[in-house]
Amino acid sequence: MKLKQLEGLLGSLQQFENPKIELEQYPTGPHIASRLLYTAENSFGDVSDKVVADFGCGCGTLGLAAGLLGAEHVIGFDIDAESIEIASLNADELELDMDFVQCDIRNLRLSDQAIDTVVMNPPFGTRKKGADMDFLAMALKVASGAVYSLHKTTTRD
Questions:
Q1: Which PANTHER family match (predicted)?
Q2: What angle do CA 44, 99, 27 make, to 5 degrees?
Q3: Residues facing residue 149 across a β-bridge
Q4: If we measure between CA atoms, which residue out of 87, 6, 95 comes closest to residue 42?
């Protein structure tokens, strides 16, 4: 799939109508999402034929991009049921098979599930300092291959 085609498909996804500030919900734009996943696949081979997890999946943008790029299996994880509902509708709209798990990522327990690649746009930690680090720690724990994560420079410390 070409980059512009991927960006166009991601641009058609339904987003949050009323983002929950306390969860630091914000949409992942199609421009950055398409480039992140396109690079992960075309430069590093970390998407197609891989099991990909989208931590804090929100509306599903990153995970759905992985599905569009040929991931073997995609699982979206989010604490918010409304986000998972939107992501599920987006998956249906794109005719992609994606599983969803409602959970707090800090309490994630994976028994037999092997995850090759984790993609995420975690809470930046502007409301709860270090929230992004909780996501990173879990991603590094479960990914057997690679972790791709978006962060805000002002929360670097």
A1: RRNA N6-ADENOSINE-METHYLTRANSFERASE METTL5
A2: 70
A3: 120
A4: 6
SS3 for 142?
Answer: helix
- Residue 38: C-alpha distances to residues 62, 79, 154 (Å): 11, 26, 26
- Token pair, residue 93, equals 């709209």
Q: For the chain, how long is the longest CA-to-CA vector?
A: 41
pLDDT tens profile 128-139: 676 788 889 999
β pairing state of 51-55 and 73-78: parallel
Q: What are the per-10-residue average pLDDT scores of the chain (157 residues)?
A: 97 82 73 97 98 96 98 96 95 97 90 88 71 89 94 64
Q: Which one, of 140, 117, 123, 103, lies nearest residue 50 by Cα?
A: 117
pTM of model > 0.85: yes
* Residue for token pair 């509902």: 85
**Sign of the dihedral defined by the CA atoms of residues 60, 83, 86, 18, in that order:** negative
Q: Which two tokens stand for residue 5?
A: 């085609």
Alpha helices in 22-148 (DSSP H): 30-42, 61-68, 81-93, 131-142
With a CB cutoff of 8 Å and minimum separation 6, the contacts of 157 are none
Write out the DSSP string of 30-53. HHHHHHHHHHHHHTT--STTSEEE
